[in-house]
Fold:
Amino acid sequence: MIERTLVLIKPDGIYRALIGKIIAQFEDAGLKVVALRIGRVDKEFAGKHYAEVIEWLENIGAKSKLAYKEKGIELKEENIEIGRRVRNQLLDYLANGPIVSMVLEGNHAIYIARKIIGVTEPRKADPSSIRGKYASDSYDLADARQRSTKNLVHASEDSESAKREIELWFTKNEIVSYKRSDEDIMYE
Ligand code: GDP
Ligand code: MG
Structure:
């Protein structure tokens, strides 16, 4: 099934000059770049991308509490407060650096892009994934320094968020149509 997904290279990926290497991973797996831009966004826009989803906030808080408990520290804040703090750090981070945004198209694009980027925390990401190969950050370090996790990339999670995010970042006119030379082999 041919799908489209939204991928972002976060500021750490750009500062570390990894734009080319990151895009190459997707292209090598057969995903086609059909829209591409480098630019900056403000915090309000970043907040639209990472919309305030209560379940996500609660989940981040619960994860954090558990991690601290394992270290013998009892966090007193509500889960949602911890979630809000993490989201706020994330929005500050995205609003204060350059971002490459792109739409990728291809077989199972949403699942394949998620597989290529790896799990959220670079420390735990498979070494063959972008986050595991090019990054080493952890929630621990991010929390200790009160900043966002530097995990290089974003890729849409499911078809609903892919649709919403593509519409947020690009107009229809900015998405181009062309044929890759290996398309007949990959897409037949
Ligand atoms: P992703 O889809 O793998 O990027 O993960 P999410 O959509 O769940 O989270 C969005 C971003 O928030 C991640 O890429 C991280 O930068 C950050 N993040 C997610 N979970 C945590 C967490 O438990 N602690 C911290 N510090 N940051 C987190
Ligand atoms: Mg996500």
User: Anything to note?
Assistant: The first strand starts at residue 2 and ends at 9.
